[in-house]
Design brief:
The complex is a heterodimer of chains A (330) and B (271). With 330 residues, chain A is mostly helical. The two termini of chain B are 15 Å apart. The chains are: A mainly alpha (330), B mainly alpha (271).
């Protein structure tokens, strides 16, 4: 028992360390912007007063970290200690008040922008996951049951192709076929339920390929178990054996992968959202953040996506350990 | 090597040759626009047709192979070197070094969604080929590090390592002469899959406008330029050929990676 508690505390400790590292990285990365962020946002035409006002508003005029090496008047640099009066500290204090700063362009609070956009991304990721499961389970079972036959080989190749085809190739191809050629679906936007089909398939394609491979090897492994022989011996149909007995046990590792992949889907949604003009957090990051050099939005989006990813992974890991005692011991 | 692995090697050889001899293979200037010739379908004059500004798609796909190969080789080499050194240090020395490296540093990098970290880095550093390569190395090394750490932990317990130590060999010699050569075999598989990953990431970032700037014939840039509705309508081949190039290259490296894994680990061969 104490082992379990210790393992749990260790995971939580690591989670805190990782989140701390991500926040630090996000606050420090803005120092890497070549040139002056204020000039990058306002342009070369801005007057010194405008620049100074902008810097003051977004606190860019304050020291970046607890200490620094500012240039002296006579040239050269000298170590200086700023204490708590710095932006790194500010960011943490604001973050603990659920404040991610304001947009460099529109002055809107970044938290509001993210809350507005995040539901669309989560909807898309969940839809992608459902599509991936619906494709992967029947295909994986078919490949595993017919292991070594042409069905298995063909499905393996299809799965590898699915992993190799990037979403930004699949997406535009689907747009070409279903929007341009057939005219059945809209090429972009999020207005109707049918608008989910192309983006979620695009986002879920790679996942369905990965899952197909996992379901296949799970089914192969479980088919060798004693309980399968028992089930067959008592006269169950092969269909019942596979779908009632084998799948139930074989899906445990698959469920874990699903949890881990939720985070991957959230990050991958950045590309899918750009392809389909899907108004989620990825589009916010790419178009409003990076495209318009609105670094406050970039910081907020990166922080939100990566924190979700990290928490989803930690939870999955803990649930998996709890479900399967074999891993707890090793 | 299995059949798919062999097919992969053939495709990769073609890809490498095309990248090396690009100036002799390309039929047109990659940057030469010709608005009178825009949206042309594949023909004898333009094998893969032309794009929205009349540039020859075949030549651009050929030169795109150079960018992909360059990014792939540099990223895989640097990541594998850094990863091997850090992974070997963690596995060999153990103790506090291992606790910091594998307990903290590896976990932080593994916990971060790779593509997002690369996007964040390039977003702040600014777009460009060198910055893209740098960002991909930053996210790439940890996979190798974890692998090599596990391998070193295994190999350092072997008798020949104990024998070398008994004979008075120093840490440096034991690690580099005795342990690493016996530990790096799985690295080859990882490197092959890493090439696929690097080619894919370069195209993804270029597609997002964060990699090689537009006039350059990166496959990701070509797809981004080909996906607006008017171009899709008039010239779907502008999307299909670079898309096919990425898919084939990534598929080939995945085939080889899978094939090598099977080849190096005979227990997996019959599964």
């Amino acid at each position: 028992m104490s082992r379990t508690v210790f393992g749990f505390l260790r995971r939580i400790g690591l989670l805190i360390l990782v989140v701390w590292s991500v926040v630090s990285l996000v606050t420090i990365l803005i120092e890497l912007v070549p040139g002056d962020p204020a000039v990058a946002v306002l342009g070369d035409q801005a007057t010194p007063e405008q620049l100074a006002q902008f810097r003051a508003k977004h606190r860019l005029d304050r020291p970046a970290f607890f200490f620094g090496f500012p240039s002296e008047e006579g040239g050269g640099r000298r170590f200086r200690w700023y204490g708590l009066d710095n932006r790194y500290d500010d960011y943490w204090v604001a973050l603990l008040h659920a404040d991610l700063g304001t947009s460099f362009r529109t002055d809107e609070p970044v938290v509001n922008l993210i809350f507005e956009r995040y539901p669309a991304t989560i909807e898309l990721a969940v839809a992608a996951m459902i599509i991936a499961i619906c494709i992967a389970i029947p295909l994986g079972v078919a490949a595993g049951k017919n292991r070594g036959t042409w069905i298995d080989n063909a499905l393996s190749v299809v799965a590898l192709v699915g992993i190799s085809l990037p979403s930004f190739v699949i997406g535009p191809m689907l747009v070409y076929i279903f929007a341009v050629k057939l005219g059945w679906l809209a090429p972009s936007g999020r207005f109707d339920v049918s608008d989910f089909i192309l983006p979620s398939f695009t986002l879920g394609a790679a996942l369905s390929a990965i899952l197909t491979r996992m379901v296949r090897s799970s089914v192969i492994e479980e088919l060798n178990e004693g309980y399968v022989r028992t089930a067959r011996a008592k006269g169950l149909s092969e269909r019942k054996v596979v779908y009632k007995h084998v799948l139930k046990n074989g899906l445990i590792p698959v469920v874990t992968v699903l949890g881990l992949q939720l985070g991957v889907l959230l990050a991958g949604a950045i590309i899918t959202e750009k392809i389909f003009g899907w108004p989620g957090i990825g589009l916010l990051l790419v178009e409003d953040g990076i495209g318009k050099r609105d670094y406050a939005i970039v910081q907020g989006c990166v922080l939100t996506i990566s924190t979700t990813y990290i928490i989803a992974n930690t939870l999955t890991d803990m649930i998996y350990r709890w479900l399967d005692p074999r891993i707890r011991v090793s | 090597m299995n059949r798919l692995g062999t097919i992969g090697i053939v495709i990769i050889s073609v890809f490498v040759l095309v990248a090396i001899f690009a100036p002799w293979i390309a039929t047109h200037d990659v940057g030469a626009t010709n608005l009178a010739m825009r949206y042309m379908g594949p023909s004898a004059g333009h094998w893969f047709g032309t794009d929205s500004t009349g540039r020859d798609i075949f030549s651009r796909v050929v030169f795109g192979a150079r960018i992909s190969l360059k990014v792939g080789i540099i990223v895989v080499t640097v990541s594998a070197l850094v990863g091997t050194l850090l992974g070997a240090a963690a596995g060999f020395y153990g103790g506090m070094i291992d606790r910091f490296l594998s307990g903290y540093l590896f976990n932080v990098f593994l916990a971060f969604p790779g593509l997002l970290l690369a996007i964040a880095l390039v977003a702040f550093l600014g777009a460009g080929l060198n910055k893209l390569i740098f960002a991909l190395c930053i996210i790439g090394w940890v996979g190798y590090a974890r692998l090599i750490r596990a391998q070193v932990l295994k190999v350092r317990e072997y008798d020949f390592v104990q024998a070398a130590r008994a004979l008075g060999a120093g840490d440096f010699r034991i690690l580099f002469v005795h342990i690493l050569p016996n530990a790096i075999q799985p690295l080859i598989v990882q490197a092959s899959l890493g090439m696929a990953g690097a080619v894919l990431s370069e195209a993804s970032l270029s597609f997002l406008g964060l990699g090689v700037p537009p006039p350059a014939p990166s496959w990701g840039v070509m797809i981004e330029e080909a996906r607006d509705l008017s171009t899709l309508q008039a010239a779907p081949h502008a999307l299909i050929f670079p898309g096919l190039a990425i898919a084939l290259t990534v598929l080939a490296f995945n085939f080889v990676g899978d094939g090598l894994r099977e080849y190096l680990d005979p227990r997996q061969r019959r599964r």
